[in-house]
Design brief:
The complex is a heterodimer of chains A (493) and B (123). With 493 residues, chain A is an alpha+beta fold. In chain A, 44% of the residues lie in helices and 22% in strands. Chain B has one domain: Response regulator (Rossmann fold, 3-Layer(aba) Sandwich). In chain B, strand 3, helix 3 and strand 4 form a beta-alpha-beta unit. The chains are: A alpha+beta (493), B alpha/beta (123).
Chain lengths: 493, 123
């Protein structure tokens, strides 16, 4: 009797050890296939039980059937159908029919063991989350033992499948967060309490990785031709709620800053223009009176007297004043009523040059226009005036003969911005070094008295700046001068 | 001929007056629209030179108030060429629009004389 009891106890011990080993093995399973391999190995002890078929809903809520075929694991996604009944079924017709429909062969004897997840809420425990189907040819007296064996193992499988499910969810969640973080166009970085970078997105590593750490905490940053507004917030990425880290968002404001500057410049110019207009009008009336009076008095003054020649000089001076006023008025009114539109710089240059034939025909004129469109966003009439003015200056700088080269092209400037350019090169005497700083000053002119008002280049620069561009020049004494009008290249939408 | 000059700029009034008088014409001046209207009614001119922008009554307002019986040739003058042109001047009853500044004051006299002469021929 005691031998029988101790044999029984030994058997129980051995079973428990096997179960524990199985559970330990399941702990190292990384996939559903791993689980299948382990349960199949367990079933090898039972010759009358064939390879397992596992049906369950995965982490992506797909219904899957995992099974062995010719020694290797296969998978099918099933639309519906496996029974979620919570009871163990022995040779149930419906189970057999279900598998027969899927596999296209009969299943005579089938054991269906439900798998229940611990994830389910207690009120939903009436349904199974999966089923382990086992085709068998067990004898009646073998069933009880086998059931005891398999129930313990299915319970352990359930925990393993739960774990795999959670791991998959975590992986998916992490991937989603990483992809979201990397998809942000603006650089974002998370800094630790010592200022070290804990995490940064792709935009950050592409745009700001070269910047020294000190530079990353200013309110605005300029780097590589771009300007960023820095917004930083305290966050907690550890296990406490106390914020110990900082997340910094670098908003690229390069374009909006440029547009703001253009707008401010435009508003400034508009205000200046209005002021110029008012001043011009206020001066015009008395000046008209002065000039008219001089014209009246000149015939009355005796010939050859100082009075007559003085009056003539006064009238010439008044006329010059009126020219300045006319220019100022053109500056104040023309173009400010007109809108900026998209135009091809090539067209503007062509039209302008056609107006200057009488001047340019004395020289060798070389025109090299860009073979493709050079779009700019400007008021065309004013832009034409700018180019007209510069070409006229170039012609007047050369005396009898010379070469005038006019080119248009698109390029990138030092900060990487796309620009449209027209260059006007003359072979005149060049601009003396001491005069170069004054070239754009209002009323500066090297022309003879009465020939120029000195407003042309100063107004041209104002106009070009209003459109977001600039005017540059190079000059070599004895060789000539090249003026370049640079404007933002209008990118197609 | 009788010439009325209405302009708030004293030097323009004076210089136009001298120019017309040097050609033997009789001239009266007014320094604002109200005075100009009063003088016009009292002394109907052959030609009136009227500035557009004046304090009180503007040039266009003055022309509106002049009765339709008026027979003077009207020259409107203005320093603003923005939205004022010959078409607008004609709508107001003017026969000529002159932009200031004048290139030559004697040309102004000649154009006024021509206006009056042409009208006389039509009549």
């Amino acid at each position: 009797m005691s031998t029988q009891r101790s044999r029984k106890a030994n058997d129980q011990d051995a079973n428990i050890k096997k179960l524990v080993k199985f559970i330990e093995n399941l702990g190292s399973a990384r996939t559903v296939d791993d689980v299948m391999v382990r349960i199949r190995a367990e079933l090898k002890n039972f010759a009358r039980v064939k390879e397992p078929i596992l049906a369950f809903a995965d982490a992506h809520h797909r219904l899957r059937l995992t099974f062995y075929q010719k020694g290797s694991i296969h998978e099918k996604t099933v639309t519906a159908g496996w029974s979620r009944r919570p009871d163990i079924r022995f040779n149930d017709v419906k189970d057999s029919q279900y598998l027969a429909n899927i596999f296209g062969r009969p299943f005579a004897r089938l054991l269906a063991i439900p798998i229940r997840s611990r994830r389910r809420r207690s009120d939903q425990k009436s349904k199974a989350d999966g089923v382990l189907y086992l085709e068998h040819s067990l004898k009646k007296e073998e069933v009880a033992t086998f059931l005891k064996f398999i129930e313990d193992r299915v319970e352990a499988m359930s925990s393993a499948l739960d774990r795999l499910f959670l791991e998959q969810q975590l992986k998916d969640s992490s991937l989603m967060w990483e992809r979201t973080f990397d998809s942000l166009q603006d650089p974002v970085a998370i800094f630790g309490s010592d200022g070290e970078i804990l995490r940064a997105n792709r935009a950050f590593s592409e745009q700001l990785a070269n910047l020294s750490v000190d530079g990353l905490f200013d309110e605005t940053i300029q780097h590589d031709g771009r300007e960023y507004e820095v917004h930083s917030y305290p966050i907690s990425v550890g296990h406490t709620d106390r914020p110990s880290n900082t997340i910094s968002h670098y908003i690229d404001v390069t374009r909006s800053t440029r547009l703001k500057k253009q707008l401010m410049q435009g508003e400034k110019m508009a205000a200046l223009g209005q002021l110029a207009g008012h001043i011009a009008h206020e001066l015009n009336n008395p000046l008209t009176g002065i000039r008219s009076m001089a014209q009246l008095l000149i015939p009355q003054a005796p010939e050859g007297t100082n009075l007559k020649s003085d009056l003539i000089e006064a009238e010439i001076a008044a006329e010059r004043c009126q020219k300045i006023i006319t220019n100022l008025r053109e500056f104040s009114t023309a173009g400010f009523e007109q809108k900026q539109i998209r135009v091809d710089l090539n067209d503007i240059v062509t039209k302008t040059l056609s107006l200057l034939n009488s001047l340019t025909r004395r020289f060798e004129l070389i025109v090299e226009l860009s073979s493709s469109e050079v779009p700019i966003f400007v008021e065309p009439h004013l832009t034409q005036q700018v180019i007209f003015n510069i070409v006229k200056n170039a012609c007047e700088a050369m005396t009898d003969s010379g070469q005038l080269v006019v080119k248009t092209y698109a390029a990138k400037d030092n900060s990487g911005e796309s620009i449209a350019a027209v260059s006007i090169e003359d072979s005149g005497p060049g601009i003396a070094p001491e005069l170069r700083e004054k070239v754009f000053e209002f009323f500066f002119t090297t022309k003879a008295v009465g020939e120029g008002t000195g407003l042309g280049l100063s107004m041209s620069r104002s106009i070009v700046e209003r459109f977001g561009g600039r005017i540059e020049f190079d000059s070599t004494i004895g060789k000539g001068t090249t003026f370049r009008v640079l404007l933002p290249l209008e990118v197609s939408e | 001929m009788n010439v009325l000059i209405v302009d708030d700029e004293a030097l323009i009034c004076r210089s136009l007056m001298r120019a017309f008088e040097s050609r033997g014409h009789t001239v009266r001046t007014a320094s604002d629209g109200i005075q100009g209207l009063a003088t016009w009614r009292e002394w109907p001119p052959d030609v009136a030179l009227v500035d557009v922008l004046m304090p009180g009554l503007t040039g266009p307002q003055l022309l509106e108030k002049i009765e339709s019986a008026n027979t003077a040739q009207i020259i409107l003058m203005s320093a603003y060429t923005g939205d004022f042109d010959l078409k607008r001047a004609e709508e107001l009853g003017a026969h000529l629009f002159l932009a200031k500044p004048f290139a030559n004051i004697f040309e102004v006299v000649e154009r006024a004389e021509k206006l009056v002469k042409n009208k006389a021929h039509e009549g």
